[in-house]
Amino acid sequence: MGLKYLYRTGAAFVSARLGITGKPPLSAQDLEMSYGENRAGALIVAGSYVPKTTAQLQSLRERRGLKLHVIELDVEQLIGSPRVANNVVEAATLETGDRIREGKDVLVMTSRKLILGENPISSLSIGSTVAAALVRVVQNIDIRPRYIIAKVCTTTHSDNL
Question: pTM for the complete prediction?
Answer without folding.
Answer: 0.74
